[in-house]
Specification:
Length: 246
Amino acid sequence: MNETIKTIQNHRSIRNFLQREVEDFIIDTILQSAQSMPNSINGQQVSAIVIKDKERKEKMADLAGGQSWVAAAPVFIVFVMDFYKSNLAAKKNGLTQVIHESAEGTLVGAFDGGLAMGGAIVAAESLGLGIVPIGGIRKNPDEVIKLLDLPQYVFPLVGLAIGYPADESKKKPRLPFSTFKHEEVYHTQGLETAIKQYDETMEGYLKEIGREAEGNWSTYTSGIYQYVYFPKVYPTLKDQMFKNDK
Ligand SMILES: Cc1cc2nc3c(=O)[nH]c(=O)nc-3n(C[C@H](O)[C@H](O)[C@H](O)COP(=O)(O)O)c2cc1C
C-alpha cells in the first residue's frame, strides 16, 4: 500500500483538537487540493468559506445544533454549492442561467461539493491534521446564509472542522465490502445477512468506545431516517433560487 492509500484507509473523524494554529499556507494547500478535484463541465460550482474568527465559529457551532467541536477547531471551512459565478458567466454572455432551478443542478452542486471536500480531507489528513465533516450546518441553513453573507444561487452544503488531533479516535468499521461492491449489476441478495453481521460488529465497536446506548447500525440509522431531520433545507434552497422544479 502506498502512503496515499494508507492515509485514506486510516481515516477516522476527529472531534478533539489541540489548541494549535493551522497556518494559512496549510489551509491554502488543503483548499488548492479541494479545487483540483474534478468538477462537472468545468462549471466550478463550489466555493469554500474559511472561518477562524472565534465568535463566528461559536455561532456556527450553535446553528449546527450545539456541536462544541466546531467552535473548538482552529479552522472551520464551509463548502458551498455556488452557481453565483456561473450566473455571472451567463450575464457576461447575455444568457439566462436556469440549471440552478433543476434537480440536476442541485445534484451537480452537491456532488461536486462532496468531491472537493474529499480532496480537502485527504490533503488535510496527509499533513497530520484531523477533520470532521459537519452536515449539521444544514439544520439552520437560513441563519448560516446570513452569517456568511451568501448571495443568491449559493447554498451551504457541509462544514469541515480541521485541527491537530488531541486524540486518535478508533477507526469505525464499515458495512461488509460485499454490500458496497456490486459486480456488473446491483445485487440485493445477501444484504440482509450482511446488515445483521454488521449490526453485531457495530455493537462490539460501540461497547468498546463506551457508546453502547447507540445500539447498532440499523437501529441508529433507521431512528434518524424516520424523520426529515433538517426540514429547513428545502424552503431555504428555494429562497436561494434552487427551485428544484425542473
Ligand atoms: C456529509 C457529512 C456530514 C457529517 N455531519 C456530521 C456532523 O454534523 N457532526 C458530526 O459530529 N459528524 C458528522 N459527520 C461525520 C460522520 O458521523 C462520520 O464520518 C461517520 O460516522 C463515519 O465515521 P468516521 O468518519 O470516523 O469513519 C458527517 C460526515 C459527513 C460525510
